[in-house]
Amino acid sequence: MTEAEWLACDNAHEMYARLGQRMTPRQRLLFSVACGRRCCRVLPSAPAYWLERKATLDALCLEAIRAAEEQCDGADREARLRALFDEVSGSSWHGLHWDLHAAIRGNVEHFLGKYQPMPATAQEQASRDAADLTELVFLADLFREIVGYAFRPLTLSPSSLTPAVVSIAQVIYDENRFDEMPVLADALEDTGCTSEAILAHCRADRPHVRGCWVLDLILGKR
Question: What is the pTM assigned to this prediction?
Answer without folding.
Answer: 0.77
